[in-house]
């Protein structure tokens, strides 16, 4: 039987093999200087064996495999790359040296990307049931948590930055979640009724959506900057405003800016979901004697739920990313580490803020996508 090439597998192999050829880690005398790049074979005594094994998985992935086998191979290879990073950090760092750092280099990121894409491709081909998708998501989160909790990566530079700032990290994590979920809650509280009102008052749709579109087109950095003088003036001149928490910098202006960015997706998706309900369904409900309120709550909103959940997914993922900018105006969150790292030219500190943000956005996006799929099946 003639073997058939797999085009996505070829792409993954090119990315992964490039990663194997490039430095896996950078060994740095301290957290600021660039340091020396070391390949997998140079960073570990058993690096040659692991390099051959990973290359074999990538080359074999160029052929058509059963999706389940591809999934297992990709997961095992990704785990091996992560553990190799931790082992290299432990092996290269002198026992009593508190200044030296071993940071992931371009080779690590390319290999991690290649095997992560292999995993995603295998899952897409398997098309598992919805409950199995939830199980895979929970399993992936638990597995990552177990690896981090095991101490296998404690020698890696970003984990050493975390160890030195653990209490601060937890505080900024709470601030980041407050910004992302708080702005989402405010957007739903205001945006859902506004979307319902626009559904019932067609003449207001154009002006209101135009204003929301203008807000959405303002660059995020500019909008955060505008909040500083506006709320600074309110806090200084409006009695009781400062006592209520209004300030030019800090959590309040960041929360308001994220709320303004969130309004358009919530309002427009609410309007789209309601107008997308089959007119025959509305007429049938009215014919059964339902009042306007009953029609909205019992028929229109349940049928529009998949579109509404899609808005929640868009807003939450967007705000998790935009909350990083809140660090510029003292709003807290993971952006605090990003901008501190940029100011100190300490890329490990930048990663301490960037990696949790990416992980949180991916997890939230996947979980809400599964909720959207569930609502569409039940609608």
Written account of the structure:
It is a single chain. With 379 residues, this protein is mostly helical. The chain has 2 domains: 7-152; 166-378, MetI-like fold (Orthogonal Bundle). It has helices at 7-21, 40-43, 47-60, 67-92, 106-126, 130-150, 157-164, 166-200, 205-217, 220-237, 251-275, 279-287, 292-322, 335-344, 347-378, and strands at residues 25-28, 36-38, 101-104. It has a 3-stranded antiparallel β-sheet with strand order 2-1-3. α4 (67-92) packs antiparallel against α5 (106-126), α8 packs parallel to α11 and α14 runs antiparallel to α15 (347-378). It is flat, with a radius of gyration of 25 Å. The mean pLDDT is 88.
**Considering the protein shown, what is the CATH homologous superfamily of the largest domain?**
MetI-like
CATH fold description of the largest domain = MetI-like fold
End-to-end distance, in Å? Answer: 46 Å
| Gross morphology | flat
Largest sheet: 3 strands, antiparallel
Q: Write down the domain tally.
A: 2
Query: Structural class, from helix and strand content?
Result: mainly alpha
Radius of gyration computed on alpha carbons: 25 Å
Helix content: over 70%
> Which architecture of the largest domain per CATH?
Orthogonal Bundle
Strand order of the largest sheet: 2-1-3
Any idea of the CATH class of the largest domain? Mainly Alpha
The overall average pLDDT, rounded, is 88
Order of helices and strands: HEEHHHEHHHHHHHHHHH
For the secondary structure, the number of strands is: 3
Q: β content, as a range?
A: under 5%
Unreliable stretches: none
Q: Tell me the number of helical segments per DSSP (H or I, 4 or more residues long).
A: 15
């Amino acid at each position: 039987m003639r073997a058939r090439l797999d085009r996505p597998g070829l792409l993954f192999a090119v990315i992964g093999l490039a990663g194997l050829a490039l430095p896996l880690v950078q060994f740095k005398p301290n957290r600021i200087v660039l340091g020396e790049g070391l390949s997998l074979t140079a960073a570990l005594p058993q690096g040659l064996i692991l390099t051959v094994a990973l290359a074999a998985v990538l080359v074999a992935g160029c052929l058509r495999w059963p999706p389940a086998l591809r999934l297992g191979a990709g997961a095992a290879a990704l785990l091996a790359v992560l553990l190799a990073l931790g082992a290299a950090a432990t092996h290269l760092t002198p026992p009593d040296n508190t200044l030296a750092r071993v940071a992931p280099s371009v080779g690590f990121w390319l290999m991690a990307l290649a095997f992560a894409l292999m995993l995603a491709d295998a899952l897409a081909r398997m098309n598992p049931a919805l409950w199995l998708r939830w199980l895979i998501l929970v399993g992936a989160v638990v597995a990552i948590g177990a690896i981090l909790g095991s101490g296998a990566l404690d020698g890696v530079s970003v984990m050493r930055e975390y160890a030195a700032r653990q209490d601060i990290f937890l505080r900024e994590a709470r601030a980041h979640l407050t910004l992302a979920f708080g702005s989402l809650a405010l957007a739903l509280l205001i945006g859902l009724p506004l979307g319902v009102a626009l559904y019932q008052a067609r003449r207001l749709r154009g002006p209101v959506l135009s204003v929301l579109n203008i807000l959405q087109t303002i660059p995020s950095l500019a909008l955060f900057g505008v909040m500083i003088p506006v709320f600074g003036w309110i806090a200084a001149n409006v009695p009781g405003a400062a006592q209520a928490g209004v300030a030019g910098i800090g959590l309040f202006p960041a929360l308001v800016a994220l709320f303004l960015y969130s309004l358009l997706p919530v309002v427009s998706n609410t309007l789209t979901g309601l107008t997308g309900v089959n007119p025959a369904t509305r007429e049938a409900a009215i014919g059964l004697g339902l009042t306007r309120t009953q029609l909205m709550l019992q028929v229109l909103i349940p049928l529009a739920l998949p579109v509404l959940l899609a808005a929640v997914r868009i807003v939450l993922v967007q705000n998790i990313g935009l909350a990083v900018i809140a660090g510029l105006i003292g709003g807290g969150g993971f952006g605090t580490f990003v901008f501190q790292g940029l100011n100190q030219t300490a890329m490990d500190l930048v990663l301490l803020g960037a990696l949790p943000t990416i992980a949180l956005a991916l997890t939230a996006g996947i979980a809400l996508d599964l909720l959207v799929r569930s609502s569409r099946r039940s609608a």
